[in-house]
Structure prediction request, 66 residues.
Amino acid sequence: MKLDSLPVLSSVFEAGADDRIFDSLLLLGPLIIGLIIVLNRSLVTETLAIAYLGVFVVYILYRGVQ
Prediction:
């Protein structure tokens, strides 16, 4: 089974700008928020959130420069 065959993910990939990394980052956001809710606020979840935001911002800036 490929990721493209899943109902929700396939529509996101089709609607996107053919950028799998950006699409993946957008899909990971709610999962990270859910993880923070389940595990409560801790050093691990804060580090995960900061790392996610850092990767997201760096990737957006990278694509903007290209």
In short: Residues 43-65 form the longest helix (23 residues).
